[in-house]
Amino acid sequence: MKPYRSGIAFTALAACAISENSAGSVPVAIESGTQIHWSTSRGFEYQLQASPSTKDSAWQDLGARVAGTGNPHSVFHDGERKMRFRVLRMQPGFLPVTSLLTNGSFEKGQHTLADRWQTKGSQPPDRIRDDARNGSFSMHCKLSNQGSAPQEGLLSQVIRDQDGKIAPDSSWVLSFWARTVSAGPSYIQQHHLAWLDESGEVLTSHPFTAFPSAIRGWRKISVTTMPPPQGTAGALLSFRFVTGAVENGHGEVYLDDVVLTPGNASAAQPPVSVASETTFTSRLSWPTKPDWVYPPFKTKIAGTRSRSSLVPTIRGDGTTASVLLTAEVSATLRAALPATLSLLPAGELSAEQSSKGQLSLRWKEHANPRATYRILHGAGRGILSGVIDTGSNASGSIANVKAGEIYSFAVLAIHPALP
Fold this sequence. Notes:
Number of strands: 34
Mean pLDDT: 83
């Protein structure tokens, strides 16, 4: 049997049921990837995220959130590609504030032009470094009538809902920060939102609505929009700055941090990143059957020579089970492919401590007379870090075991793959 894909190879596992029924073999994958560990606390949820190891790459959720139990949690991420990982802790049910807008802080752009935004008018707004609420940039519009000729500046962004975030009749909130510097006779500053269909035609829209032009510091403006109708596939957000046909008409304003977010988003108590550890490792994994028990087995070393009881460490629940391997052990197993590998069940295995500080293992020979055997072992219940090749002998020993320590182990039978 050949590897299924890069980084994963298939073997086979023999298991035993708690009811002691006989068991067949089930497919097992040898995988390489990253194990991420972190501590959890009750009353919080945790979200694992990953990002390619490149500058400014976006973070993406990996799997579903997990509830804190007060115990450490661990997740295996398959693949040898270098990735960055982080873990966010949040309140249960937290909904992230995800804006439909792109570049609402105006940080990305070239000179006076902000990426994804369009400007128009006789005196259009400019991207500028002079004043910003956050970051380095904001949008600035300064109007000044020439005689009594009115002036206008327009700023807009067309949004395409490619991810299906806009649900019909959902609630949305437009919020932004403004700092008005001057407001002469007849000066008006307004915002406007229209919901669009797939062709870009307006389905419904707010009228242009004035927002305060009192001269003061940065002020936050938040407005609940009208719900998007059925068939909404995008939106058009606009800001309009205009003076009337009067002498000395003028106005000046800065805009920053423009967002259009779901009305049910959680703005308070945002997620925080928590400490985590990552280890590049390999594992043996397989689908389980409910109430079946699987290797590896564990045993506690007694102070005197005695027969050791074997305790299976994995009880099946219908999901995927796994045991961690070091890269060296994984490489040894891969070298045996395309042979079939079978982990021996408890009913075919016995363990006894010897007076020489060894844990001696014996097992029933495999039905295939060409089978050879490997003992996988490790201290504690963590990674299986050692491998012992016993050839065709159905017995072997783990050396230098110490009284009081717990050892985990499994025995592999390696035999020719089925045609």
